[in-house]
TrEMBL record, chain A:
SUPFAM superfamilies: Folate-binding domain
Annotated signal sequence range: none
Residues spanning the membrane: none
UniProt-recorded name of the protein: Sarcosine oxidase subunit gamma
Sections of the chain in a coiled coil: none
Domain of life: Bacteria
Species of origin: Pseudarthrobacter enclensis
From TrEMBL, chain B:
Alphabetized InterPro entries for the sequence: SoxD, SoxD_sf
Provenance organism: Pseudarthrobacter enclensis
The name this protein goes by in its record: Sarcosine oxidase subunit delta
Chain residue ranges for the region called Disordered: 87-134
Compositionally biased tracts (Polar residues): 100-125
Superkingdom: Bacteria
UniProt cross-references to NCBIfam families, sorted A to Z: soxD
Biological processes annotated in GO: tetrahydrofolate metabolic process
Amino acid sequence: MAETAASPTPAKTPAEKDLAVRTSPAGSLRDAFAAGSLAGTVEIAELPFLTMVGIRAAAGSDAARRIADVTGGLPARSGDVAGSGDISVLWLGPSEFLVVAPTEAHESLGGDLIQALREALGGDAGQVVDLSANRTTFELTGPQARSVLEKGCSLDLHPRVFKAGTAYSTEIGNIPALLWKTGEDSFRVFPRASFAEFLGRWLLDGMREYASPEVP
Amino acid sequence: MLLIPCPNCGPRDETEFHYGGQAHVAYPENPNELSDTEWSRYLFYRENPKGIFAERWVHSTGCRQWFNMLRDTVSYDIKAIYPMGAKRPDQAGAPAAESGTASLAADSTTTGTAAPDISGTSISPASAPEGATK
């Protein structure tokens, strides 16, 4: 590329070049997200291209134990999130899990997570499938994040019930999505790629009222 | 909207689920031996009780698992949730009533462990109207 000769920035690695030409499912909303975010109230951003791997392995089987060794544990019941370091495993069903890891863990960028999971499963019954392109990730943060989500999600999101570190597969804005509470005021929402723009706009619409002063 | 207690995920909105029709309709032992009438009864004839009905549901937006449910078709009260292959909880140990119209073998859906009956009510007719099967 022409800029590499003139620009003082270090030359891009092939992985960075690869990411630069990719378009994330909600990439078209990047400016809208920036404009709609209200610092200190509620902010939204897309975390594009996280590595996600779908796992199916019967609980208690040898394959599940080997996979748990790679990921740092498998969740046992609905809502649980297991994992270690920057790898998290969300519970999707009694024998179905979703591994979420940083972008760099993907094999196209030189990561070895998926290969390690495949080797852990071996020839046993089950599956390890790269689902990185299946869903995208929205991060909704701020003290009003919960009330924005409550407009489209019928789960009880009150902190007394929905603790940080739990994740549920549910409906948000009438579409199926995963909702993961990562901190007291921060949520990650995983819509399917084809729903990403719809849900992004739904959340932006839910955030709009907080831009105005509260009506007493 | 129904609030359905998924056995894996807890109470969730009805919109997260899909309906699977009447429970305890067993696949015929040997479909090749059935007459067209018997086959059509297996395929198309289902209970339509006023009262308790055993039906299948899948939590399609959540854990994607099937389960059985006893629901009152009048009040929409959910009386019981029980696993696929289990007997109807309200008929465990009860003497078999007359067999229903939809099922040929009196079996449960998945395992064949003798749930002897599909009709939870006394209003089900003993057989389908003759003209309907012709």
